Amino acid sequence: MNEKLTDEAYARAALTYLAEPADRWLAQLIRVSSAAGALDAIKGYRAPVSGPPRTKAGMAMMAAMERWRTRLSELPTPEDVLSFRESGIRLITPEDPEWPGQLADLGEDQPYALWLRGSADLRFNCLRSVAVVGSRAATAYGAYVAAEFGASVAARGVAVVSGGAFGVDAAAHRGALGADGVTIAVLACGVDVPYPAAHAELFDAIAAQGVLVSEWPPGRHVSRLRFLVRNRVIAALAPGTVVVEAAARSGALNTARHARDLNRRLMAVPGPITSDLSAGCHQIVREWQGTLVTSAAEVIEYLSPVSATPMAEAGAGQTTETTHTEQTAKADKPSARRLALSVLPRDQLDLDSARVLDALPRRGGMGTVRLAQRAGLAPATTATLLGQLATGGFVERCDDGWRLRRT
Amino acid sequence: MALARTYSVALVGVRGHLIEVEADIASGLPAVILVGLPDTALREARDRIRAAIVNSGETWPNSKITVGLSPATLPKRGSGFDLAIAVAILAAAEALPVDAPAGKMFLAELGLDGRLRPVPGVLPAVMAAEAGVDTVIVAAQNVEEAALVPGVQVIGASSLLEVIVWLRGGPPPSPSLDPEPSPGPVPAPAKSKKLDLSEVLGQAEARLAVEICAAGGHNLSLLGPPGAGKTMLAERLPTILPALDVAAALEVTSIHSVAGYLAPGTGLVTVPPFCAPHHTASMAAIVGGGSSVIRPGAASLAHNGILFLDEAPEFHRDVLDALRQPLESGEVVIARASMQAVFPARFTLVLAANPCPCAKTAGPGKTGCSCSPAARRRYLARVSGPLLDRVDVKVRLQPVSRSDMLYDRKFAEPSAVVAQRVVAARERCAARFAGTQWRMNAEVPGPVLRRSYPPKATALQSLDRAMELGQVSARGADKIVRVAWSLADLAGADQPGPDQVNLAIGLWLGVPN
Questions:
Q1: Whose CA is closest to B257, among B138, B348, B83?
Q2: Could you tell me which chain A residue has the CA closest to the CA of B207?
């Protein structure tokens, strides 16, 4: 963001003060006459260019403008908007490089602008991210799963996107923070408003390591409806959404519905069929063709496009030259689940590792020294290679030493 | 008739406390009154001293003699005060110059004929003397041990008479004439046969594990059938450990001295001790204790060395669990109603176990073992989880065939070669931990290891993978990183690389947990 505020950016900031997000009328107005034009029109300097005033639509537009005008007293000056930067709050609009392009999928519901607080880059981190949502009144199971998933995906360089509520939201954030990962909280109030108040510290921690996002200007408080409106942003920001625990009628399910409608990858964590809090998750799997996930690895696997980085390499968070060859080798194989277990395809093993693997008997186990003997390698080298092969899922320990892993 | 003062030492654990010995001779009915919490052996000193003084040709003062040992509240035990009391009485009787014994410390038992006999615990006792005493007089057999303490003049004597002559201004005693042979327990026999790590053929992995333990101070667990070489390996661990430095050697020598295991003329113990108690050992034998005399146990005797528990599951469970505290804090605190003794006990624990109570699981086909899996599990579960938590390296040994041994022959290195690597690794490690409280990788707690000494992310790739596959738990990961650091130290690398991490994983996966 540069020091100066363009008219358009200021107008968008101002519109977040005047209108509630996802107002179709305002979206139309902006589309037709740009944000600056819309703001001028609302201020009453000139009539909106769109639509003949006599039609039904024209009447509705006029009513909408009247609605927005009631808030004109709250309108900030451009200086006010700029001064938020001193408290670490920045504004991004679709013209900004940090604007996440995937929000365009929302069509007319796209946010006019976003207020951000935090160090992380929103667009960059949302490219590799997953939304983890669920019930506020999560059970111990739900909180555990959310934290575990949050930590595991964050550790592999995938950002967590969630709300700011108790339960699953907070657990997912805390998990990601614990793994030193990036986490993104989309709030239904101003980014400087700690709601719930008990999460003030959590939000500060997120701002330090990730980013807080809101469509509402600083200082705005929550309302019941705003949570539902906010959910579409969560679903749109992340390429995939995991629902950890959700009741049959819940905000999380609302997010999931948005994710489905936006063609995002929808995942659900199963729970006991007797638990009301898992009913929503099961509904996602049964009726909405959501994917059932039981581990963070499965989440990542499902999120990655066929040609993208396989899970093991993603774990290191960096690509080396070898991983590229492995990627191409992997992309050809159809069975993703199987590949997830044997991370290095057998063909890609270096010569010594392959020798050790060949030295293993078809059935039963064998001690390290005897394997070294059969492979013609030093025992210490063999032990190292066996450790490597074990982490690749090729071999495992048994009473007699090492044996081939059953596939 | 006057008052005379001198010094001796009371031991609590391995700490010596300077004791002022006062003798007062006053008019009254002839009697000897000993005050200051003496135990039986010390109370009997009256009779020994009287006989020794008379048999040395001196006159026994026929008056009321009061001997005070202060601080009076500290319990005192043993016969080491004999000489100090005798000298104080003689000085009080003006048979010696009254000031002659002042500022000197006397530490020996008296024979009835006036000979000086050695006492255990001379080294820690003399260490206490540094406080305010410049000369220490001990029995001739204890001279060598007492002389280990720098800055104190040590005089050895063989009889009370020699001491009397010297205190009267005569020549100092010359102890080398005919020293009394040392009584007391037979000291631990020095290993006559020379052990070498290269003799353990066919167990390359286990040899490596032993090397890692020596380098990083890790505790070791060896699980394998009889005859696989568990005991051989453990016995050879001391041969690759670096010699003790002076401070450590003094600690070790003190403990062995207190226990009475120091052979006369041994001097400083510089070889790391190896202590292998039998599995029927009692709690007191392992951690130390005793009702009247608090003696160090095997855990303290293994201080700065190896404590080897062969057949670990056969030990009493409470005895094994009692080791948790010394493993945590590096010392044993034994509390009694009257006192509390602290013995250092920072040892490397080596556990060995058969995989099964019948010990017949050896060989292909596992002939002869009829134990149910539950019985085997129960057997191994007798070594409690918290204890195993302190063990970083666990090796599963396989029975060795002839061809294994032949093949391994060219890879087996002699102890001297391995020891050099271990010394270099320890130096590397010490340089890294300079300025911290830790000396070895095994001592660094997991959170600190993760925060302050994290290996590079590239090195940890395979560990991440193993954790994803569920092969390694978070607790296991800490241990793998710790062992990888020791491997890096051994390899002379600044940081554990992928090879070290892979090897550490390979070793760790040998553990059925």
A1: B138
A2: A380
